[in-house]
Design goal:
By secondary structure, the chain is of the alpha+beta class. The strands form 3 sheets. A 5-stranded mixed sheet has the order 4-3-9-10-12. A 4-stranded mixed sheet has the order 5-2-1-11, with no helix packed on it. The chain is globular. It has 5 helices and 12 strands. It has a domain of 136 residues.
Amino acid sequence: MPSSNPNRRHPHEPRKQAFVKKGKVVVAKNGPYLVSGGLPLRTEISVVGEEGEPEKWARGKKYPARANFALCRCGQSGSKPFCDGTHTRAHFDGTEKASRTSFDEQAETTRGPAIDLKDAESLCSSARFCHPRGGTWELTLKSDDPVKRKCAIQQTGNCPSGRLVACDKKTGEPIEPMYRPSLSLTEDPQANASGPIWVKGGVRIESADGKVHEARNRVTLCRCGRSKNKPFCDGSHIRARFSDGGKSLRR
């Protein structure tokens, strides 16, 4: 029988994660993402559930391990996901517009009986994992129900951009999935679009001007070249029907 204490940690809830210093992504000026430190790279595909909305991730292609590589940021490379120098010929404008303020400074909070939900809307990548079961916000407001609490935490953790963060009501600490430092190229078959680069596990992201973004467990980097919130994704890949040639997409 579930515990009557709404603040007690569910045995399957993710724990707080301590980040390790492994690998980094440098945003080249008007150029690619320069990845170093042997970060693993693979494809992950969003899977639609019974409600007709994305509910889980399926693993796709795993790329051979490389110490260093450059990922396309302009969306026009002929060797996606890797850079082939097209950004130079295309005169790609990769000017970074994202806020340098912390997640907590940007976020608004929905307070529920068992968990709180922090929401920094500007980071949304339109992955839609927050939609099922009435929405993650509604589930948070009803989180005294253990099932709804578990769903809210699961949906929040599946949000690749880190727009949403569930927090323990008693301690205020984030409740996060345990992600090792890695990169995933996301695919969204429902929207028929290739999604952003999902950066996991507190990987260091350094801007072209040398400044370092806040280390976070989940963020998404634009790879279609059209985001207004560079280097982060703003969902523009869906409107542009961006494709990297992934097999999960319709032709």
